[in-house]
Design brief:
Protein name: Vacuolar protein sorting-associated protein 35
Number of helices: 43
Family: Belongs to the VPS35 family.
Radius of gyration: 46 Å
Distance between the termini: 108 Å
Subcellular location: Membrane
Number of strands: 4
Strand content: under 5%
GO cellular component, one term: late endosome
Strand order of the largest sheet: 1-2
Helix content: 55-70%
Main location: membrane
Shape: elongated
Structural class: mainly alpha
Low-confidence stretches: 341-401, 568-582, 793-801, 886-896
Length: 942
Amino acid sequence: MAGVPQEEGKMLGEALNIVKIQVQHMKRFLETDQLMDALKSASTMLAELRTSSLSPKQYYELYMAVFDALRHLSNYLSEAHTQGKHHLADLYELVQYAGNIVPRLYLMITVGSVYMSIPEAPVKEIMKDMMEMSRGVQHPMRGLFLRHYLSGQTRDHLPVGTDEGPTGNLQDSISFVLTNFIEMNKLWVRLQHQGHSREREKRELERRELRILVGTNLVRLSSLDGVDLEMYQRIILPSIMEQVVNCKDVIAQEYLMEVVIQVFTDEFHLYSLGPFLSATAQLQPSVNIKQIVIALIDRLAAYAAREAENENPEETKRQEEAAAKRLAERVKEAKSRVNGAGSSTWSTPAADVDTTWSTPASPPAPDADKTLANGESPSADDEKSPTSAVSEKGKEKETEAPVVKKFRGIPENVRLFEVFWHQVVELIKARPDLSIQDITALLVSLMNLSVSCYPDRLEYVDQILSFASEKIKEFANSPDLHAMQTTNYLASLLLAPINSYQSILTLLALPHYAPLLLLQPFSTRRSLSHSIISSILKNETIIETPDDVNGVLDLCQVLIKDQLDSSIPGPQGVPRRQGIHHFDRDEMAEEQGWVARMVHLFRADSLDVQFELLQTARRHFEAGGERIRYTYPAVITNAIKLCRRYKQREQDITDWQSKTQNVLKFCRQLTSILFTQVEAPAIALRLFLLAAQISDECGFEDLTYDLYVQAFTVYEDSISDSRAQLQAITLIIGTLQNARVFGVDNYDTLITKAALHGAKLLKKPHQASAVHLASHMFWQEAQPGETVERKPSVTATSDESQETVKAYPHQDSKRVLECLQKSLRIANSAIEEIVTVQLYCDALDQYLFYLDRKAPAVLPKFINSLVEIITSSIDNIASPDVHPSQRAPPGLIDGVQTPEMISRHFRNTLLYIQSRKASAAGDASWQEVDVVGAFLKMGIHQ
């Protein structure tokens, strides 16, 4: 077998040498006008094309060498006829006496093509004669190249007029090219039967190498001047489709359908979709029909995009706005019906599509627009009238023809989607062998066509989704349904509306979207849920009704609660299972973060409806297990915002207090669940305090007190880490310090409890910090410009409003001093002296604060004593003889404090005191503070 190519190469070399020699002879004879001898040399040269021992590539190389040589002969013949040396009619007869048929036909075509270029030549008869004579070569490869030569030589001389005489017309040219195409295709198909059956793959490869010879004929047809839509529909397309279907060869059918899509104009395709797609349904079972239909859809979609770009920008904007308005109206109408009507939402049921849609045979006459709008086919007269008027009326037709409106490049009288839908459904019915992969791929292309060309026609999208659902159920037991390719196609099908519609709420108007989504595997549902939430967040889609909240969260339920088909475990210690969807806390945190961000887009103008939105969201989230750690806080914070909105509108809402209390109880309930079910004490504590803060603003003493009690319960039961305890008690102190609603007893109980917890912290530095911070609870101050009246607060538990005297602003300087002095005692008991000094500096800041606020019990003498203590201790922490363990301890309040930092802190405090003494010259309390010695000790120049 290895010697065969080598032998073929040797034969090719010999043939090329003969051609080279005969070309030289032919040129010499032509230069001396010895035409007969030149023809003999040409015939000898052409005899080399009789071989059947070369591969297609080698035969093509030989053919090109011969082709180049024959151009010299063609040029000579044209000049000889013009100069009167030889008449082409005589030469045309003469060359037909050549001995062998292959040289004879090549010479006949060479002379005949030149003869066709002569004015008044009987072109019609020459074409017919050459076509008939070419039938004499039936060897597939020799015949293909002969007819390719015939097509190439005559392409520039084909008649395109309307003359019925011997010079021929466009009809004759179309017939000539079509006949040559049909014969070449037959030869090409027969090529597969050459050689041994063992070489079948080799023959298929050779056939694919020769396919361009056949496709060139279709290029010739598409480039003929004068070919209009009527001719294409009536003659060209039916002839091509008949040959393609009848050849029953997979390679030929796939290639030729692809060529038809590529070479003919977009307008021709728009008005002849029906015949083309009908023929597609009749192709061989092994043909990749999916690819053919998708290629056509993609070409027309690209055409629509180009046309849309070329349209007037203002007109395009107007059309887009009108489409958006129609879409909004359809969404509103569909959503109002979807719960009750189900699949019958649309005015045109999907079941009636087969009988509803049809394709116009050509651009319709004025009367045809109405019938097309009703989904009916135009009459036979309507089909013929526009094309017959081309030849009969000329310009008159152009002036009378109506201007067809376009939307995104597609004429309104061309029902592009309906035609594709009808034909694709019929194709699937006629081809039960089509796999679910091919079906879903076709549906994806239809979906892309629908959302790009008809964005306001929701019924189109829903028809596709409904059909996909039916096919999934039909292929339920097929392994192909679960193949990666099928899964990807279905994901693309469901993703297209998400990416195309600006508002995700449009999906809720599609009755079959959610059911189809539920049929997908876990990974697909999860990916699509990500896309849905991403779209909502990107477009900031406001979700205003409980039904919409239900709909959106139902679409995203794969992210909200555990799924039966996933391997993600639930909370409460369910063991982790292995699998591709194994539990990943970081990944869950990211996903639930998206969901939580979406909650903030649940907004309604009506406060009552806003509460319904949050309650609806809560009902979905409560089944999420561990996920509520991330979703409940978003619901709670939105509920707290709602309370403020009620408070702001208290003049307009008579029962705002009861409604606000209900919302706060809702917050309390959700926070309690968050604390008990997922053990999130830090978050629960903050949310209880946040709710207590807004409850305080609204004036609900008992409810506020209860919320503080809950916060203390969380602190006592679940927060054990010393650092976390300090942070928590700091939050409690800060919130209580701003409380205004409490009576004296309740406020005293709470602040005493907070101070006690601060004093019981494990670490001494933490104790000292908490205690001196607790002093702020005993010294409340009214805000600047605020008029304080000790009005009674309203309790929430009694039917008759009980009234208690408010403690705000609570000011007890003795208790303040007690806290500050206790913090100093605790600081003094610290082991590391550097920690003690730092705590002294912090306490000094607090003393100065209260001195500035004129707290009676905080006297300058206490500050002077503390400054003296710090001054005497500062040298010890800066001494190089201090043991290394005392120089840089693990830190105060979990930070690392160096002697330099503490010294700088003390210096800045002294400078502050000096500035206050200077600015408050008339304030005796500041003047009594003595820092002269400290200035000298620290080396500060006054």
